[in-house]
Amino acid sequence: MKAWDPQIFRTILESLPVAVYVVDRERRILLWNSGAEKSSGYLRHEVIGRLCRDDILMHCNEHGAILCGEACPLAETMRDGRPREVQVYMQHKLGHRVPVHVRSMVVRNDSGSIVGAAEVFEDIPMKPGRVLDRPSLETLLHAQFVDYEERHIPFGVLLIQFQGLPRVDRMFGRPAEHEMTAELVDTLARSIRRDDHLGWWSENRLLAIIANCWPVALAEIAETLEEVAAQTTVPWWGDRLKISIQVSRADVRDGDSADSLVARCEEAI
Asked: Where a domain ends, among 98, 123, 148?
């Protein structure tokens, strides 16, 4: 039986919808398929021949630590030959961070020597309606500040205050208040962009982290959320429950901290 032409395998890899790229021992990119183009924003001609650590994907962990040195999954895999699976934040060409699931494996020649490595990465989709707790928000805020300090990638936060809950509680009871809150929070979580994050900051207050966003766009997103909330109602024993939200916003500035950024939002409420 005739051996397959290696070009056939290359053609298959390049056309796969899942993101795949291959590097040599120096971590120079040899193959970058269509899935990698779609997921990262980088086209083949922009990365082929470059080192993967040359300010391309810039993987970092949940604490913002860059993994492109000795902690790089590809480098570790080529050192010991063992495949790896990790979850990291990849830097998109546009500058924002995207959570991805990474699998790395070695590439060997006919004699079994390691001549490179391949990485498969898949976006981790935000679950519809997922709402984070405050510690998770604080971790994500830290990662945004790392991006801002290193690359000056703009971002902002929105502080969302519920209005009218005491009236719902007084007129319809605590179960109605809980139902209205749950429906509105789920709607807001589905209304933010895929790479943004929403969670509980304090009682009756949500915080949204809006990534890769200039002040004008931040204002538009805040307005959209207020409009979405105004259109959200919950049927309750023949009535229609409805509450509103007040959204304040703050875009990051030089010298900011998480506390100062959120404090500007609180001052506006």
From this structure: 123
